[in-house]
Specification:
Blueprint lengths: L8 E7 L2 E5 L8 E5 L2 E6 L2 E6 L3
Antiparallel strand pairs: 1-4, 2-3, 4-5
Length: about 55
């Protein structure tokens, strides 16, 4: 983002997001499992952040 400027940053997805829904027909046994992606960001050569709750 902002390539060629002093504010240029890079964001990489280093862990995939996962969403799994299981519908059994009964609310008590149906589930949704969500795992947020892991992002890595850098400005110039500086590390900015690790895991996020996107």
């Amino acid at each position: 983002m902002f390539a060629g400027t002093s504010q240029e940053i890079r964001v990489d997805v280093v862990g995939e997001l996962r969403l799994v829904a299981t519908a059994t027909g009964a609310p008590s046994t149906s589930t949704v499992d969500y795992k947020a992606p892991i992002l890595w960001g850098a400005q110039a050569a500086s590390y900015l952040s690790g895991k996020t709750n996107v």
